[in-house]
Amino acid sequence: MNTINIDKLVEYLTKEVMKKINSNTVQKDKILVINKEENDFRIKDDNFRIDYLYEIDEDLEIDSYKYIIVSDFTKDQLIDISMGKSTDNVSSIVTEGILKGKSISILTDGVEYHKYKNTSNKNFYNMLKSYEEKLISFGISFVDKENITEIFYDKKEEESKISLDKQDFYTINNKIITEAILEDIYRKGYKNILINKNTIVTPLAKDYIRINNITISKK
């Protein structure tokens, strides 16, 4: 008679339960915030998973993050990154993020040289500004702390539009859209449909749209 290994059974059931939980969990975009431990900058937004660099114990995996935010930025880091150098932890993460196409934002409040606008030699200040402009040309944005979360939603909307533009639309000029019409179009392989502004969509057609994840756009 075979005996059951309780530990292995518990391990197996635990894995199956975790698979089920993960399959039903919406994956959130991850944000990496690079700030000092004493810096009290925090982001409150439940739509994202937010990690703070000083809280990460294991090896950092840049690939898992979609957005990178730098809250404190020295003039040396500004110059190094603009020249493609990685001389400290921040410049290393940012340069790797640039190479891997990550969305990178730097808080204007934390840019060191900005504090000396009224006292610095004008030519020296403009030189540092030219390095900032070079980072902007690399796709890095300089954002006020109050507007930081807007950037994520703007980018999501932009990505959505780009994705939509790449898809083929089936144009319908009918005044009324019925479920039968949608079924016929769906069988042809179209999930993106363009209709007139005043077109009426019947209730059954709306259900069909929802169930089959059809995108309806008005022209």
General form: flat
What is the number of helices?
Answer: 7
- Biggest sheet, in brief? 5 strands, parallel
Q: How helix-rich are the residues, as a percent range?
A: 40-55%
Descriptive notes:
The protein is α/β, with parallel strands linked by helices and 219 residues long. It is 41% helix and 17% strand. The chain contains seven helices and ten strands. It has helices at residues 6-23, 75-82, 89-99, 122-137, 148-165, 179-187, 203-211, and strands at residues 29-34, 48-52, 67-70, 103-107, 141-143, 170-172, 176-177, 192-195, 200-201, 215-218. The strands form three sheets. Strands 2-1-3-4-5 form a five-stranded parallel sheet, sandwiched between helices.
Describe what is shown at a glance.
The protein is an alpha/beta fold.
Q: What structural keywords apply?
A:
5-stranded parallel sheet, alpha/beta, 219 residues, 3-stranded parallel sheet
Topology record:
Elements: H1 6-23, E1 29-34, E2 48-52, E3 67-70, H2 75-82, H3 89-99, E4 103-107, H4 122-137, E5 141-143, H5 148-165, E6 170-172, E7 176-177, H6 179-187, E8 192-195, E9 200-201, H7 203-211, E10 215-218
Parallel strand pairs: 1-2, 1-3, 3-4, 4-5, 6-8, 7-9, 8-10
Helix pairs in contact: 2-3, 2-4, 6-7
